[in-house]
Structure formats: structure tokens, C-alpha cells
Amino acid sequence: MAQAHPIAKTRGANGDTLRKGAGASQNASQRAPGLRVRLARLDSLTLWLFVFAGAFVLIEPSLYELLFPLALGVALLIGFRIPASAAPLIVLLTLFNMGGAFALMPYLDESRSVMFIVISIYLAMTSVFFASVLTHEPERRLETIRSALIWSAWPAGIAGLLGYFDVAGLGSIFTVYGRASGTFKDPNVMGPYMVLPIVYIVQGFIERRSGALKTIVLLSVPLLALFLSFSRGAWADLVGALGLLFALSFVTGATLAQRRMMIVYALGCMAVLVVMLGIALSIDGVREIFTMRASLSQDYDEGATGRFGNQLRSIPLLLDHVNGLGPLRFHYYFNADPHSVYINAFASYGWLGGLSYLTLIIATWVIAWRTVFRRSPLQSHAIAVWSALIVIIIQGFQIDTDHWRQFYLMLGLTWGIAAASKTLSTASIPATGNALLLQGPQRQQALTYQTRALSHTPREGDRMG
């Protein structure tokens, strides 16, 4: 019997191996899409829960701190990369906290001062996280963040309303000095927190994600809670943020019809705000506190030892202390907190921290204004986030915002959107003027493509239920 040639056996064996390998590869490729979908859902869930938990900080460490490692771990698993363009954010936040560490050195035996710097470092890490998480599937992750912010405003706001009206004796838990604080320790923090969710809700109406009735319902609790916080800063933040939202939406509108509708939307929002304000002021207790808080200046603001007097008197002292006064030690000198994030940056973090913080704010202004006018699918998110962040930055002159979780979230998102939008930028789309020079179907296609890029109307599956 003739024996099979060794090479033939080898070829047969190799053929079987190749066929088995090809089959395994095919099965793996069939499983891969399903695995990616499951990982994406897990990523969306953990990210949503992490952002949602940012509204519940009555007890510290809060759920927000506990969920951060989980959100980070899942993000690393599915897609996470620190963008090179976010290097200034990372360097400046590092220098800011290094300044705080140097200022802390003489006071390492004071647990409150140590914890203050530890929290600062942690919050800086969350900002880098939000900037980096947008390097992978930024549209999906931004929609997840948007949804979490809107829904987090409801339970936080309901808690504030229950506390303000002292339902079931909850006033002692969810109010401070008769002002709604909800699931926050301070009404001056809860009020500004509501600004970005409200901006997103109004923007959803502008982009026709939701109708007028749904928008009014979504706005009702966050808007009333913000008002009953009786935070003058929050009131100013809301007016400024909505004004900038409408202005930027008007300027970046692709067509004249869109710009005309923006005026109608703005007038409609003003009407809703006036009606809601009138309803709230019809309550005697609300009207009394509103009249008192509506004054531009309070007793504790005025005089040499008032809020602004202390800030002015602290400047010569801070110039003489390169390492600042030490974390949380401003009140030892002036019997009050600085009530200015910029004064506090020099007082608690020294010259290194103060100068780094100022540089960070300036750099953020530059990249944010560039991003809001960059045509990309992320443009609407850039407009919403910057509309809310810029008013918080300005508010920093009269309140300490350096430990606000929402500030670091918006800071990171601003840098992350700037990095992601460069990749997604529709630079190849003709400008409106150039598109008008085209003829027939080409002209219509260019204008339609440009309009979609500007408005970024989401797919049906992306819309909130």
C-alpha cells in the first residue's frame, strides 16, 4: 500500500488547523459586536450613576466619591485616553494642587486642612476623567451625562421643596436658614447646580427634542428649587446662562428661519419664567424672603469687615505670603471665609496655586470660545456647558467654588469637548456662503449637512423618555 507523502500529511493538518482557526475567528467576530454593545451599556450605566450621584452630598464621603473608581474602571475597559490637547488642564491642575500641598506643610497636624487638600486633588482627578472620557464615543457619553444631570436635578429639587415647605418635618434636613438646600449642604451650592440641567432642558426645546408641555414639566422642579434657594448668585447664573445659550444658538444658527425661531423661543422662556415667578411670589413667606434677598448688597457684604472689605484688606497680606495663609486659615485673620475663589486660591494654595488657577481660567476661556463656534456634532453640548460654566467662573468673585463638584465636571467637559470636536469637526463642510454658490442638489445637500452638523438632532433612540 502506498504511503502518503509526509508533506501531504502536513498540508492536510495545516488545512484543518487553518479551517479551525478561521471558524474560531468567525465565531469571535460574531461575539465581538455583542460584547461591545454590553460593555457600552455598562459604561453608560456607570457613567450615568456617577454623574447622577453628584447631586447627593449631604453625607461625605458621598456616593459620588464611591462611584468614581467604578466609573473610571469601566471607562478604562471600554475606551479611555488622556487627550494631548488637555495637557494644559492637567499641568495647571497639578501645579494648583502642588501649591496647596506646599501651603499645607506647616499645618499637617490639622485634619481639616489636610482633608481640604485631599478633596482638591480628588476633584482635579474627576475633571481630568471627564476630559479624557470623551476621547471614546463622545456623543454617546455626552448624552448619558446630559440625561444624568437632568434627572439628578429632580430628586435634589424635590428634597429642597419638601424641606422649604417643611413637609413631614423635613425642613430641618433640607433647608438652611429657611432657604431650600435639598440634598446639598448649602443653598448657595444647590441653586447653581440646577443651572446646567435647566440649560440642557431649554436647549432640548430649542432643538425640538421635546415639546412645550414636556419642557415646562421638566423645568418645574429644578426651576422652583433654584428660586427657593434664594441664592442671588444662582439667580444671576440662570439669567446669564440662558441669555448666553440663546445668543450663541442664534449666532450659530444655520438658517434665517432658525434664528427667527430663536427669538420666539427666548420670548417664550421669558414668559414662562415670569409666570412661575408670579406664582411663587403669591405665597407670603416666599415674597418676604425674596424681598430681603433680592437686594444687591446685604449687611455682611458692606463695610471694612464685610465680605468685600475683607477681600480688599487681604490682598497686601497675601502679597507678603508666598505660600499663602494655609488651607482653610483665612478666617483666622479676618474672622470670615474669603467668599472669593480667586482670593482663596492665593490664601489656601499660595502664589503657585493662585497663579496656576488664574492661568487655568484664562486658558479655559480661550479654548471654550473656540469650541462653541467650531462646527461639529458636539457643538450643542459645547454651547450648553460653556453657558453654564462661564457664569460659575464669574460668580467665583463672590463665592468659593473651588470645591464644587459641578464646577470640575463642567471644566473637564469643556476641555474634553474641545479635544473631541477637533476630531469630529466638519471642516470639510462648505461654509454657508460657499454652499450658496453651489447649484441644485449639491447646494441643498451642503446646506442640509451643515444644518444637521450645527443642530445635531439626535437619533430617536438617543432621546430621553
Biggest sheet, in brief?
2 strands, antiparallel
The residue ranges in which pLDDT falls below 50 over 5 or more consecutive positions are 1-11, 17-30, 426-465
Measure the end-to-end span: 75 Å
Anisotropy-based shape: globular
In percent terms, what proportion of residues is strand?
under 5%
Q: In percent, how helical is the residue content?
A: over 70%
Total strands: 2
Number of discrete helical segments: 19
Short description:
This protein has 465 residues and is mainly alpha-helical.
Could you characterize what this model shows?
- The chain is mainly alpha-helical.
- Helices cover 72% and strands 1% of the residues.
- The chain is built from 19 helices and 2 strands.
- Strands 1-2 form a two-stranded antiparallel sheet.
- Strand 1 (175-176) and strand 2 form a beta hairpin.
- Helix 1 (6-52) runs parallel beside helix 5 and helix 16 packs antiparallel against helix 17.
- The longest helix is centred in the first third of the chain and has 47 residues, at 6-52.
- The chain is globular and about 55 Å long.
- The N and C termini lie far apart (75 Å).
- Residues 1-11, 17-30 and 426-465 have low confidence and may be disordered.
